[in-house]
Amino acid sequence: MRAVILGLVAVSLALAGCGGWFRPRPVTLEATRPPTGDAARPPAPEPPKVAEQLTRVASELSELQNVVAKLMASSRQLEDQLIYLQRRVGELESQSRSRAPSPPSGFAPPAPMPAPPVPPLRSATTTPAEDLYRMGVEKLEATELDAALLILYDLVTTYPDHPLRESAQFLVADALYQQKDYRGALAELEALVGAVPTGAKVPDALLKIGLCQRSLGDSALARRTWQRLVREYPESVAARQARVLLRG
Are 151 and 132 in contact (CB under 8 A)? Predict the structure, then answer.
């Protein structure tokens, strides 16, 4: 009997010793704290690459050059229109004076009103027109359109009566047309015809004016422009092209 009791006691002690292995371990504050220091910081973003910055700056510079070119075109066009209107005013005043009735005898004729003076054009450069034209053509051939437009605008503004003015302004209009800037091209061509109405480039300008008008959605106006070209310049190459367009 004593042996049985001793055996039960030994089994109880053994079971009590094994129970310590299955007791849950206490959770400490250190285990629940979030990581601190460098381990908790997100990775720093990579700095932008220099090539991307240069590309963005070049794009912004190109946009600014386009804006400057368009502003110069608008300024030059307004200046040409002002000169044309002043010439027309002078012609109308001359016609009015020639048609005015003679004053009755015994009265002195009134003194004629002086025509308003034409403001001189600002000289934007001292470079000869021939050099400007050559440089503009070279820039066009190198597809540097913004630089070409600025140079050719300079020629048109500084040398409005030079023989190369027509070709320079026509090249400007053609470059704008190739860029699908039909309104800008149309404005340049109309300014050319208004400033030099008997110039050698007028037939070609009228042909391209019609093309601009058609591209802007006014086919009826384009046909009238081509009809005018055929009527006023029937023997020109541009008139032959206009006849083909009118049959289309």
Answer: yes
SS3 label, residue 25: coil
Q: What percent of the chain has pLDDT over 90?
A: 48
247 shares a domain with 135: no
Taking the C-alpha atoms of residue 175 and residue 182, their distance in angstroms, rounded to an integer, is: 10
In a domain, 11, yes or no: no
d(CA 174, CA 207): 12
- Spell out the alpha helix ranges (H) of the chain: 2-19, 29-32, 50-99, 129-141, 145-158, 164-178, 182-195, 202-215, 219-232, 237-247
Tens digit of each residue's pLDDT (9 = 90 or more) over 85-103 = 565 556 556 655 655 555 4
Domain assignment of residue 140, given as a range? 60-91+121-181
| C-alpha span between 83 and 203 (Å, rounded) | 22
Residue 77 lies in a domain: yes
Same domain, 168 and 76: yes
In a domain, 187, yes or no: no
Res 2 pLDDT > 70: no
* 99/235 Cα distance (integer angstroms): 37
Same domain, 86 and 138: yes
> Could you give the C-alpha distances from 151 to 75, 86, 161, in angstroms and in order?
15, 27, 17
Asked whether residue 36 is domain-assigned, the answer is no
User: Do residues 152 and 244 both lie within one domain?
Assistant: no
From residue 246, give the alpha-carbon distance in Å to each of 81, 118, 121.
Answer: 30, 41, 40
End-to-end CA distance of the chain: 129
